[in-house]
């Protein structure tokens, strides 16, 4: 307890899955957390639960593709809590899969906007706010799909690969400028969240997968550890990168994937 005492964090996509777990854990460790999401009722419920648990949290409606919204969220963190120390760029979507030859340009652009442009905007406004606070830690949630390719996910792979290298550039720029801001990426394997359950459901409806159970079994087989991950296991990695325990890490990629990419 207390690994983030006195720190102020923004977590995007905080309403569910990895973002909800990270918001709860950062708050348990002493951070004041600005939870943001497009899902307002679920996001408010996460912030309320943190407060009911004795933690500090607020919720803001926030579409991560909007630069105006980013300016407001960063200002809200500083106005409400005096500074910004931690930013978790987590919000994202897993689009329905399609081979490149069938992928519509609009669908490609939508994925790039939500999964990559958002992280650029978060880094931009996070760096501006954090340098006023004398430093901080930015954690960008990429994926194993930012490291290895997979068929029928060109838009998601490209966005998550982009997050991986964007992270390294942001880390170098912050180090060169002497801002005291560290920037790292996290690369989860398949984690049991609403996002994965939706992918499975869509796959079953489209006839790409037999049944939800079969699909989960197939996904499980891709992880040598023999199961999907839990949101808390990604939240633990985020906590480590947010805390001073990772003080010599910047521009690095933390893979948390049950061995998926080890083969
Ligand atoms: P999730 O359960 O779907 O939660 C993501 C949250 O982000 C949802 O509340 C979603 O709202 C919100 N969101 C979507 N678009 C947004 C936007 N434009 N602005 C603000 N919020 C938005 O997803 P998750 O599984 O926790 O994933 C979190 C991150 O981890 C994503 O970046 C994902 O790509 C990455 N990741 C996940 C896995 C996995 O297996 N779960 C693996 C690797 C990487 P709606 O539900 O209303 O869309």
Walk me through the topology:
Layout: E1 8-12, H1 17-28, E2 32-37, H2 40-52, E3 56-61, H3 67-81, E4 86-89, H4 105-132, E5 136-141, H5 154-177, E6 181-188, H6 194-205, H7 212-221, H8 231-242, E7 253-256
Helix pairs in contact: 1-2, 1-8, 3-4, 4-5
This protein binds NADP nicotinamide-adenine-dinucleotide phosphate (NAP).
NADP nicotinamide-adenine-dinucleotide phosphate (NAP) binds next to helix 1 and helix 6.
- What is the CATH level 1 assignment of the largest domain? Alpha Beta
> Globular, elongated, flat, extended or rod-shaped: what is the shape?
globular
Let me know the average pLDDT: 97
Q: Considering the protein shown, what is the CATH homologous superfamily of the largest domain?
A: NAD(P)-binding Rossmann-like Domain
| SSE class | alpha/beta
Q: Are there runs of 5+ residues with pLDDT below 50, and where?
A: none
CATH arch. level architecture of the largest domain? 3-Layer(aba) Sandwich
Quaternary state, please? single chain
- Number of distinct beta strands: 7
Radius of gyration: 18 Å
